[in-house]
Amino acid sequence: MKNNFKKLFATALATTLVLGLVGCGTTPSKDEPAKAEGDKAEVTVVKVGVVGEYNAQWDTINELLKDDNIQVELVKFSDYAAPNRALNDGEIDLDAFQHKAFLANDIEKKGYDIVAIGDTIIAPLSIYNNKDKVSSIDEIKDGDTIAIPSDLTNGGRALKLLEAAGLIECDPAKGYVPTKQDITKYNKNIEILEAESATLANILPDCAAAIINGGNAFTAGLDPNKDTIFTENVDPAVNEAVPQLINVIVSRTADKDNEVYNKIVDAYHTEEVKTTVNDQYKGAFICTWE
């Protein structure tokens, strides 16, 4: 009788302990905590430098990369000068904000050891009009001011856009990156004001028009489909500069074959991302991968 009582007591005690563990829900079996912590540790966070607020595609990419335990963390910059420096200095892992011509010029001028590892989109450059002053290219008159980006490649691209609009003519020998000094003829005697790209939307109220990159326009609340009076032709058959105007994902040269970074590029090059870009930006950005 005494032995039976001991057995019954031992069984009850063991049952109580088990129920207690299950009921708390915080002390799983011996192997479970290690697995959970291991799963957390396996997530690789990749810092990607961007400029502007047109980043819906990165949400889609993060969804696609969940099974690979890769997470993109965006690091937002307010101007075009900072991301390549931050990438070169190891403050971020990748950046994605610039076209190939801008990247090539930055590498040449500043000696950065960085390289493009994947194409993304092309954002046609547009002339945004001050609606209180002009409603079409034809209404731009002598004495009007038009603001353009101050950096070499986007500034040259803007001058070629003014040329395509019939307002000026540039020295053809300067290719797609002429400067103001390379303007050979003013068909309208306009004043061209150079300013940092991110500030152009703020300057627009003081000008007749401004040439603004698509990303900065979106960030400023402008609609590239409604608020423009002239847009760059990005058909390569018409505009020979287009291959240099394709935006890219950039890494440090030493990391160009990094498996994780290349998975991010692969995730960008999917139909899911193409759908996001088309749905969110309505043709303002054009996907360039095959």
Q: How would you sum up this structure, described in words?
A:
There is one protein chain. This protein has 290 residues and is an alpha/beta fold. Helices cover 37% and strands 23% of the residues. Helix 3 (56-65) crosses helix 9 (259-268) and helix 3 runs antiparallel to helix 10 (271-281). The longest helix has 23 residues, at 2-24. The radius of gyration is 28 Å and the shape is globular.
From the N-terminal CA to the C-terminal CA, the straight-line distance is 82 Å
Please count the helical segments.
10
Q: Approximately how much beta-strand content do the residues carry?
A: 15-25%
Q: From N to C, what is the helix and strand string?
A: HHEHEHEHEEEEHEEEHEHEEHHE
Largest sheet: 5 strands, mixed
Name the poorly predicted regions. Answer: 1-38
Oligomeric status: single chain
Mean pLDDT across the residues is: 87
Largest beta sheet: what is the strand line-up? 2-1-3-13-4
List the helices and strands and how they pair.
Blueprint: H1 2-24, H2 31-42, E1 44-51, H3 56-65, E2 70-77, H4 82-88, E3 94-99, H5 100-110, E4 114-119, E5 121-122, E6 126-129, E7 145-149, H6 152-164, E8 168-170, E9 183-186, E10 191-195, H7 200-203, E11 209-212, H8 214-219, E12 228-231, E13 247-252, H9 259-268, H10 271-281, E14 286-287
Parallel strand pairs: 1-2, 1-3, 7-10, 7-11
Antiparallel strand pairs: 3-13, 4-13, 5-14, 6-11, 6-12, 8-9
